[in-house]
Amino acid sequence: MKNVRVALVTGGAKGIGASIVETLAANSFAVVVNYASSSDAANELVEQIKSKGGQAIAVKADVSKNTQAQSLFEAALQEFGKVDVLVNNAGVMALSPLADTSDEDFNKQFDVNMKGVFNMLRLASTQLHEGGSIINLSTSVVGLKLERYGVYAATKSAVETMSAILSKELRGKNISVNCVAPGPTETDLFTEGKSQEFIDKLANMSPMERLGQPEDIANVVGFLASDEGHWVNGQVLRANGGIV
């Protein structure tokens, strides 16, 4: 596996995560597809990659639990011997005004979106292969500051801050750390619970007058994971069609 680069993608079974997995596999990465519950989708994606001559495994883990995050990293190292690229994509979203947000929704979003990323960053800080890349998914709502997104955006703002600081703490390891912040992107996570009127409103906020597609985001991640993107470090790339 010395000449094959290995990527670990959390929440890689569906939506943006699956598109990232497909893009990295197409760029000759061996890919670890992490999932929490979507086993059928994850295994189908792995078989699809293998059918095209690629290398991939699916690993179940709830990254918000430190022991499971450790098991995920260990499974990747056992199968492929190293991890060159970590993509922290796993996330949950529960929209509501702050005044109406339940403790359960608050805790779940911080557990997965922030603590899950923290767990994986802590492991990657010591176990990622030298010269590798860490790419964390944020959101352009951090800039847009839309109503009802308060807790979700707060988790992602924390991720952006951790990422920038970690990029400095990894001095000397030649590891880049960046965030990709999608705007409204046509996935189940985005459309669930929203009216068509609201979806259309968000789509038209972009000067390109459309929703992002998962491959729009995956292409940016693929660039940051490549040698060509390695000089970009400590940054937030807002892949949103110009919405903010």
UniProtKB/TrEMBL annotation:
Keyword Kinase annotated: no
GO molecular function, one term: oxidoreductase activity, acting on CH-OH group of donors
Record's keyword terms, sorted: Oxidoreductase
Stretches assigned to the Ketoreductase domain: 5-183
InterPro entries: KR_dom, NAD(P)-bd_dom_sf, SDR_fam
Family under the similarity heading: Belongs to the short-chain dehydrogenases/reductases (SDR) family.
Protein name: 3-ketoacyl-(Acyl-carrier-protein) reductase
Originating organism: Alteromonas naphthalenivorans
